[in-house]
Automatic annotation (TrEMBL):
It comes from the Eukaryota. Gene3D superfamilies: Tetratricopeptide repeat domain. GO terms for cellular component: synaptobrevin 2-SNAP-25-syntaxin-1a complex; terminal bouton; vacuolar membrane. The keyword Transport applies. It comes from Scleropages formosus (Asian bonytongue). Belongs to the SNAP family. One of its GO terms (biological process) is synaptic transmission, glutamatergic. This is Beta-soluble NSF attachment protein-like. Keywords: ER-Golgi transport, Protein transport, Transport. GO terms for molecular function: soluble NSF attachment protein activity; syntaxin binding.
Length: 98
């Protein structure tokens, strides 16, 4: 798969994850499986981050991993959150290795 195709697919995953996050915050979304949608969105962000890594778009990968980490923090998954922040840091280090 070409890197631009991976980036396009990753961007689509990010957009879908954003929609899931927004719908889980609504009143009806909160009553009917809001946490499940948030976890699905987290998985989508993680898949997008890995696709950005494969395409060597390190800045976008870092941003996606930060989204994953923030969601893990909301869900009280502290170890997963820390691991995602480490992944984000490693991606950002490839952009600016200071």
């Amino acid at each position: 798969m070409e890197s631009s195709a991976k980036e396009k697919e990753a961007l689509q995953l990010m957009a879908e994850a954003d929609k899931k996050i927004k719908s889980s915050g609504s009143f009806l979304g909160g009553m009917f499986g809001g946490a499940h949608k948030v976890e699905e969105a987290c998985d989508m962000y993680a898949r997008a981050a890995n696709m950005f890594k494969m395409a060597k778009n390190w800045n976008a990968a870092g941003n996606a991993f930060c989204q994953v980490a923030k969601i893990h923090m909301q869900l009280q998954h502290k170890h997963d959150s820390a691991s995602s922040f480490v992944d984000a840091g490693n991606a950002y280090k490839k952009v600016n290795p200071q």
